[in-house]
Amino acid sequence: MKIVVDTENGVPPWRQVHDQVIRAATTGALPEGTRLPPIRQLARDLGLASGTVARAYRELETAGWVATARARGTVVTIPSGRPDREALLAAAAAEFAAQARDLGADLANALKAVREAYKE
After folding, report:
1. In angstroms, rounded to a whole number, what is the distance separating the alpha carbons of residues 97 and 77?
2. At what angle do helices 39-46 and 50-62 cross, to 10 degrees?
3. Which are the contacts of 38, defined by CB distance < 8 A and separation ≥ 6?
4. Rounded distance, CA 110 to CA 60, Å?
């Protein structure tokens, strides 16, 4: 799994890491039991502060997506009752809509942005 952080898209870097891990776990790219990189290593690889990655891991652990143990590190643990792809899509759409409204975009411009991004 490759995590990519875009520091200019307006989404906090910790949230980008968080969302990408959930997406990978949901699609099966990160099966249950997969060990995630240590915080310092991932922070160094992404050019982020360790605290940023630590927050993403902490939020993932709180939601049940990962578990951290001293001997094993941080591993993927699919939460019971995890959201399905439709629920994740709805959540992503709601988050995008909120950001688009905050930017003052109307529905037509927001849909145009989605269509352009979808082509990529």
Report:
1. 30
2. 120
3. 73, 74
4. 29
* Per-residue model confidence as pLDDT tens digits over 1-15: 789 999 888 899 999
Q: Is 82 exposed, middle or buried (0-12, 13-18, 19+ CB in 10 A)?
A: middle
User: Which residue is it, tokens 């502060």?
Assistant: 49
The residue behind tokens 């930017």 is 103
Beta-carbon contacts of residue 34 (< 8 Å; ≥ 6 apart): 1, 75, 76
Query: Taking the mean position of all CA atoms in its chain, how far away is CA 29?
Result: 13
Tokens of 86: 């439709």
Longest dimension (CA), the chain: 51
Give tens-digit pLDDT for 32-51: 999 999 999 999 999 999 99
